[in-house]
Write a structure and sequence with these properties.
Layout (H helix, E strand, L loop, with lengths): L32 H19 L12 H14 L3 H20 L2 H15 L1
Amino acid sequence: LGAPPENVSEEDDREIQLTLTNRFEVEVEEETETQKLIAETKELVIPILRLLPIIQNTTQRLTLVDILEHGTKHATENNNRDLSNRIRQVLENLGKIEKVSKEDEHESFIHDVALEVA
């Protein structure tokens, strides 16, 4: 840019204001209620899965609901109300997610949880 001018009269020494406008409007999509519910449920499910004991002698493939039902039995046997309440909340949220979401959102939720736990 070079050196500043040395002699500037007081008439020429004034404040300049520039207004910036964005020519590239980008609409930011806010999270939907379903996305918030999925994130909340994921935050609840991951610690639950880490607390549950591994189910031995299983020949069938278990679903997330099967594992949570096993967790409810485990929580009841150990008088763990906090775990029981968390599992109940997750099951309620899963029911809501299934009602309002598309199939791929539900599958992506299960996939995300599996990646986090692994």
